[in-house]
Amino acid sequence: MTNPLPAWSALQTHYEQIRNEQMRDWFAPANDPAPTRAERYTYAGGGLAADFSKNRINDATLKLLVQLAQEAGVEKRRDAMFTGEVVNPTEGRAALHTALRATEPNAPFHAQILAEKAKMAKFADAVRSGAWTGYTGKRIRHVVNIGIGGSDLGPKMVVHALQHLETPEISSHFVSNVDGADLWRVIEGIDPEETLAIIVSKTFTTLETMTNAHSMRDWFIQHGCPESALAKHFVGVSANPAEVVKFGIARDNVFEMWDWVGGRYSLWSAVGLSIMIAIGPQQFDELLAGAHDMDEHFRTAPLEKNLPVLLGMIGIWYRNFFGSQSYLVAPYSEALHYLPSYLQQLEMESNGKQARLDGKFVDYATSAITWGEPGTNGQHAFFQMLHQGTTIVPIDFIAVLTPEHPLADHHPKLLANCFAQSEAMMLGRTEEEAKKIAGPDKPELVPHIMFPGNRPTTTLLVDALTARSLGALIALYEHKVLVQASVWNINPFDQWGVELGKILGKVVEADLTAASADVKTHDSSTAALIARARAALKR
Ligand code: F6P
């Protein structure tokens, strides 16, 4: 697989030269007596630090990767995004999530953004203080965010991560799936008189969200809320306010986002209303400030010291030169439980593309599969394969150095596991070492207790999980996506790949629910599935 850029072919040659080199040798005192490798490959930015030293890289690799970023026009694309150029040409839009956290008065749409944020803050304060009441005068104790994809994953991830900053007066709930079980598990346990529903949908046409929103509306009415009082229990967030009003939400209760905010980049906008209610407007500003710190770092740091650039380019190194199919995100933090699923949308919906910006098809790999689970849980499930399996899966470990809870004696154990895993991945265990452990009585054990090692990992260090550091961490990955998209010459801001399933889904739904259906329009497999389900639904 090729890319015409000169640095790409230089990297192919370089890969052949270093593919058999062992990281444990690079770290060995004979080769790194001071030692300096960790220091040389650890960089800081936006309040975070990243240790890239346990990667299959040396100075020549980094030089070539930075050269590739330059040749691919990463800086040009970055600047075009920040200044509001149409960087999403298939939808004719800018991608200005960075403007949502900009502090400079001349930033694009600044006044409009501040006005909407002030409206959010006024509302969030009223809900948090208890001044905003439900139809029987009770304060709001449950906020239910109804949305899916970018209208769910970001707010859910952040609210969970910053639970230690959440007001104890209000519980946050997130409902996304059209599976009624998702909404039911929330509403069966809460009091409608104390519940506020936030319907979040950029388009306000999404099947799942609209279905849940209508069921939620019915639930309020069935429990005695007069239609005239629904305004006390429903607010909407959308780039399509007319549709929100049509649904029956008062215009005053509509919070706007704009077409230049992509769904998966939208938690910084009114889509983050549930976050603001949970942690308060001041902490929400801190979240934005952290993202802005990373924006500034990305915009101004030289490419060779630029965290999003390095993270992105090292990802390209494994995806396009080592042929890695996937990469793992392992936050050693329960608070970051939902970060991997948030990143799945961010990375795979952005960069899972086959068409280049010029309309030609790529002949190289694009987005890796992003997956993950918090440590230490993953260690007792799939880490076996990461250590001894036949596939190399690069890993991003995320370590939070100080805990956000009072059980301080757990923390050294947690961090120890995180650091030990990256050490084990790098070192492995040689045959000689395995023989010593197996001893003379058990030579047959040797192959089973050998570890190949040389498995690449990056360790991201967060001092403490604050709104600010979380903002920076999220923005780091957002910009990593742009860096990779630039090299792959694809548009990370559209998502045409979700359309076909939606269109066919409507046809299948009609055939499932119509009084009589002509399922012959489907292939025999789909037709048989529909026929079985029709029979079951009639029971
Ligand atoms: O189907 C994919 C998608 O369009 C995502 O890109 C988006 O985040 C999600 O659906 C929800 O869309 P909306 O906010 O318009 O309901």
From TrEMBL:
CDD domains to which the protein is assigned, alphabetical: SIS_PGI_1 (cd05015), SIS_PGI_2 (cd05016)
UniProt keyword annotations, A-Z: Cytoplasm, Gluconeogenesis, Glycolysis, Isomerase
Entry's Gene Ontology cellular component terms: cytosol
Matches recorded under InterPro entries: G6P_Isomerase, G6P_Isomerase_C, Phosphoglucose_isomerase_CS, SIS_dom_sf, SIS_PGI_1, SIS_PGI_2
Annotated EC: 5.3.1.9
Pfam families for the chain: PGI
Reactions catalysed: alpha-D-glucose 6-phosphate = beta-D-fructose 6-phosphate
BP GO terms, sorted: gluconeogenesis; glucose 6-phosphate metabolic process; glycolytic process
Annotated GO MF terms: carbohydrate derivative binding; glucose-6-phosphate isomerase activity; monosaccharide binding
Cell location: Cytoplasm
Function: Catalyzes the reversible isomerization of glucose-6-phosphate to fructose-6-phosphate.
Protein family (similarity comment): Belongs to the GPI family.
Cross-referenced HAMAP family: G6P_isomerase (MF_00473)
PANTHER family in the cross-refs: GLUCOSE-6-PHOSPHATE ISOMERASE (PTHR11469)
Protein name as catalogued: Glucose-6-phosphate isomerase
Species annotation: Paraburkholderia caffeinitolerans
Lineage: Bacteria, Pseudomonadati, Pseudomonadota, Betaproteobacteria, Burkholderiales
